[in-house]
Specification:
Bound molecules: NADPH dihydro-nicotinamide-adenine-dinucleotide phosphate
Number of strands: 11
CATH superfamily of the largest domain: NAD(P)-binding Rossmann-like Domain
Largest sheet: 6 strands, parallel
Number of helices: 10
Oligomer: single chain
Strand content: 15-25%
Distance between the termini: 48 Å
Helix content: 25-40%
CATH topology of the largest domain: Rossmann fold
Low-confidence stretches: none
Structural class: alpha/beta
Order of helices and strands: EHEHEHEHHHEHEHEEEEHEH
Mean pLDDT: 97
Strand order of the largest sheet: 1-11-8-7-5-6
CATH architecture of the largest domain: 3-Layer(aba) Sandwich
Shape: globular
Length: 290
């Protein structure tokens, strides 16, 4: 019988800890979020982040820009936030409209305010094991593994997906030389031949590919830990909206083979928000950049 890793339970506990710490600070941390355009999923994510801020006493500012906003205007907004001493950290919700270079935008965010941990300097620090803002989703996953005392040391972890914001930083974190990592890591991607030969050897599988229900039971070893990062909108007759969110793992098939597994929704997604707030707290306390 598997244990369901509850992002809800762990995130509630950590939110409470953040709230208590924020209450001790003279100046409340201040997070800003820039949202460009009307993408419904992005709007939902940003709203959840703002709501979470309210809950723990972090001040938040939402900067909403129209879809047609030029790259120059967005860069100007970013420079303003870089210079605004009241803002401790900020995020630019991705994806951005196609006419804007995400890389250029990320590189313009001041590393000290980059609480998403996407700036090359912060990723570089992560690789070199220096204090930094760890990208929110991988950081959330590490916290889930820790909360459930899941042994990682000496285990084989297979990460599926190598994006800059999830798969790559995740693979780096799991390979680190500390008791909460020390895995042997295999990083798989769309060009990996015979993916199953790797996943079948894995003690821990972290699926971050963005392909609904791609990971099936015959790809997973008995007793494996499965972390599902995927958030995929699929058509559904069960909901009023006509769609529902599912992960990259075929939960119903895979769960009976696992020792631990995360659900979607209710797993990794909630932890991503908590990690963002933790990074904002670090920014406010000037713990990474003084
Ligand atoms: P990207 O699209 O940027 O990256 C997907 C990665 O998966 C790529 O590296 C790609 O390989 C790889 N991939 C795609 N198809 C396959 C395949 N058939 N076999 C093996 N690898 C494959 O996605 P993100 O990393 O941004 O997001 C991944 C998923 O996680 C999405 O569903 C997203 O919605 C979700 N997500 C969830 C978050 C949360 O809070 N829970 C936060 C962020 C993302 P290649 O590099 O070769 O193209």
């Amino acid at each position: 019988m598997y244990t369901l890793i509850s992002g809800k339970e762990v995130s509630e506990k950590i939110l409470e800890e953040i709230k208590q710490e924020v209450a001790t600070l003279k100046k409340k941390p201040h997070l800003a979020a820039i949202l460009v355009g009307e993408d419904p999923a992005s709007q939902t994510y940003v709203n959840s982040k703002i709501k979470a801020c309210e809950r723990v006493g972090i001040t938040s500012t939402l900067v909403k820009l129209r879809d047609e906003t030029t790259e120059d205007i967005l860069l100007q907004k970013i420079e303003e936030l870089n210079l605004n001493a009241d803002i401790d950290g900020y995020i630019v919700q991705l994806p951005l409209p196609k006419h804007i270079s995400e890389q250029k935008i990320i590189e313009t965010i001041h590393p000290a305010k980059d609480v998403d941990g996407f700036h090359p300097i912060n990723i570089g620090k992560l690789v070199l094991n220096l204090p930094t803002y760890i990208s929110a989703t991988p950081y959330g996953i590490v916290q889930l593994l820790q909360h459930y005392n899941i042994v990682t040391q000496g285990k084989h972890c297979v990460v599926i997906g190598r994006s800059n914001i999830v798969g790559t930083p995740m693979s780096i974190l799991m390979g680190k030389n500390n008791a909460h990592a020390n895995c042997t890591v295999t990083l798989c991607h769309s060009k990996t031949e015979n993916l199953s030969q790797y996943t079948l050897q894995a003690d821990i599988v972290i699926a971050a590919m963005g392909k609904a229900h791609f990971v099936k039971a015959d790809m997973i070893k008995e007793g494996a830990v499965v972390i599902d990062v995927g958030i995929n909108r699929v058509p559904s007759t069960e909901t009023k909206s006509g769609f529902k969110l599912v992960g990259d793992v075929d939960f119903i098939q895979v769960a009976p083979k696992c020792s631990y597994i995360t659900p979607v929704p209710g797993g990794v997604g909630l932890m991503t928000i908590v990690s963002l707030l933790k990074n904002t707290l670090l920014a406010a306390k000037k713990e990474i950049y003084s």
